[in-house]
């Protein structure tokens, strides 16, 4: 007997958004890590390719090493003692922030509504967001970046001035049943079709066997 799985269980990869200590010890910021302290005293990783942190034991030997991504907030200070399970760093799993390294006033260049920037109005919150859609210099104005500041805003070092959506894994159909569903809805001719009776009749079988109404 052949069976068909018309629909499958949807699955989605869980996006990691924090680093927890796997062992106890003293936390050390590696020499390659670059950070900035925000106005609300948060330590933010500024390395474009991420930086490293290490947990060492009482003897000074390395017990664990982790890589921390750009934009992550370090929740433990350099030299602080940590226990297994402590959250060392955390970040937004859905967006990559664009962070200012210095304090100052915002000046927007070549920002033209409808040409380089698209405005979207949120009916629920009433807020208007601006998303970059085009630009001569995409390094300075990355496409799809959502601006979080406006002209003449004052910002401090470590403030987020824009966000880029992260690429996340999409929901997949485990059984691969979706093509079968499409075939049914598009009324395609199925393989090995059965025969259907067009009108009501009596069907008789071999002698002595009961008959059935169809």
Task: Write a concise keyword list for the protein shown above.
214 residues; mainly beta; OB fold (Dihydrolipoamide Acetyltransferase, E2P); 5-stranded antiparallel sheet; 20 strands; flat; disordered N terminus
Helix-strand blueprint:
Elements: E1 10-11, E2 18-20, E3 25-29, E4 35-37, E5 43-45, E6 51-56, E7 62-68, E8 73-74, E9 81-82, E10 87-90, E11 95-99, E12 104-105, E13 117-121, E14 128-132, E15 146-147, E16 154-155, E17 160-165, E18 172-173, H1 178-185, E19 202-203, E20 212-213
Antiparallel strand pairs: 1-18, 2-10, 3-6, 3-9, 4-5, 5-8, 6-7, 8-10, 11-17, 12-16, 13-14, 14-15, 15-17, 19-20
Would you kindly provide a written description of the structure presented here, covering whatever features stand out?
The protein has 214 residues and is mainly beta. The protein has two domains: 15-91, OB fold (Dihydrolipoamide Acetyltransferase, E2P) (Beta Barrel); 94-169, RNA polymerase II/Efflux pump adaptor protein, barrel-sandwich hybrid domain (OB fold (Dihydrolipoamide Acetyltransferase, E2P)), CATH 2.40.50.100. It contains one helix and 20 strands. A hairpin with an 8-residue loop joins strand 19 and strand 20 (212-213). The longest helix has 8 residues, at 178-185. The radius of gyration is 30 Å and the shape is flat. 13% of the residues are buried.
């Amino acid at each position: 007997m052949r069976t068909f799985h018309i629909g499958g269980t949807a699955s989605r990869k869980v996006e990691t958004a924090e680093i927890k200590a796997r062992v106890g010890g003293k936390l050390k910021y590696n020499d390659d890590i670059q950070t900035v302290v925000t106005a609300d005293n948060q330590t933010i990783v500024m390395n474009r390719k991420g930086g490293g942190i290490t947990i060492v034991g009482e003897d000074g030997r390395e017990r664990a090493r982790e890589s921390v991504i750009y934009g992550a907030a370090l929740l433990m200070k350099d030299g602080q003692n940590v226990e297994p399970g402590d959250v060392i760093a955390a970040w937004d799993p859905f967006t990559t922030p664009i962070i200012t390294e210095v304090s100052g006033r915002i000046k927007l260049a070549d920002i033209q509504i409808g040409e380089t920037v698209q405005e979207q109005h949120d009916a629920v919150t009433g807020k208007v967001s601006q998303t970059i859609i085009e630009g001569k210099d995409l390094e300075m104005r990355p496409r799809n970046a959502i601006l979080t500041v406006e002209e003449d805003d004052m910002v401090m070092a470590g403030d987020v001035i824009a966000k880029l959506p992260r690429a996340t894994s999409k929901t997949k159909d485990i059984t691969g049943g979706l093509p079968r569903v499409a075939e049914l809805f598009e009324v395609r001719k199925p393989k090995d079709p059965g025969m259907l009776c067009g009108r009501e009749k009596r069907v008789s079988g071999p002698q002595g066997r009961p008959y059935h109404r169809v």
